[in-house]
């Protein structure tokens, strides 16, 4: 799950309390020179004494990684909304994200906006910078996906990418220019395409917004699933032929597809069928069932073409005759 990002900082004065009398006594005895040396570290950062910054000491060690804990510390500041100097307004979220400019400027897009904002307002970073992403109108960029991407600028969030949200994360990562998260999300989408989400992925790939070569990668994987993987998974053309459960499952699934996608599958030479005769039979069985389910429209199967184009599927509007 993505982090629940706080919108306002929350500090506990009690967690920073120290015994002033004890400090004064220790300073008089020469044990410490500054009171700040006894201040406890932030609650989410272990003491620096727990780590070694010496490269030779760290090499080959299974002990704590200082750099990892430093990233964790910065990430917790983001989650808690602490010490932020940047407000990012987006259409789908209120109040805005509270961020750290020096961290999120890793995004080329945000770096560009920050550079312009600083030049325009002559900001010295002593006051929060406010930028609005009014052009963020992509319906596939969700609050969850955008939060994952912003979090990833602090600390890897690849574990939050799932088969269900991968295309949303890819859309947000493409918008922000986060290359490694784009690639990971695209691969996650391809690996998790199945009979329940393949139509959604194809519809997403037809979306007008550009997601680079990742769109084509996912589209090709989705079509491969429909034309090759699913017929093989169901053993649709096994020993039992058209009477087998696999064949019936394939027909039942194709019937539920949007018509243009159904037509593409039945006409495609990539469809994994053993012969022209089997392709024609599959097309006729699917179209017959489709016509029974759609009384206002009727599909027609035309046969007798080349082996690569054995069938053509067309659709007409069915006119009902009114009885007086």
Verbal overview:
- With 324 residues, the protein is mostly helical.
- It contains 13 helices and five strands.
- It folds into three domains: 68 residues, no CATH class; 77 residues, no CATH class; 82 residues, no CATH class.
- Helices cover 46% and strands 9% of the residues.
- The strands form two sheets. The protein has a three-stranded mixed β-sheet with strand order 2-1-3.
- Strand 1 and strand 2 form a beta hairpin.
- It starts with 19 loop residues before the first helix and ends in a 7-residue tail after the last strand.
- The C terminus is likely disordered.
Brief descriptors of the model:
elongated, 3 domains, two-stranded antiparallel sheet, 3-stranded mixed β-sheet, 9% strand, 324 residues, 13 helices, mainly alpha
- The assigned structural class equals mainly alpha
Cα end-to-end separation: 61 Å
Q: What is the overall number of helices? A: 13
Unreliably modeled segments: 7-19, 48-53, 320-324
Question: What order do the strands of the largest sheet run in, or round the barrel if closed?
Answer: 2-1-3
Alpha carbon gyration radius = 30 Å
- What is the 3D shape? elongated
Strand count = 5
Overall pLDDT:
79
The structural domain count equals: 3
Proportion of beta-strand residues: 5-15%
> Tell me about the biggest sheet?
3 strands, mixed
Order of helices and strands: HHHEEHHEHHHHHHHHEE
**In percent, how helical is the residue content?**
40-55%
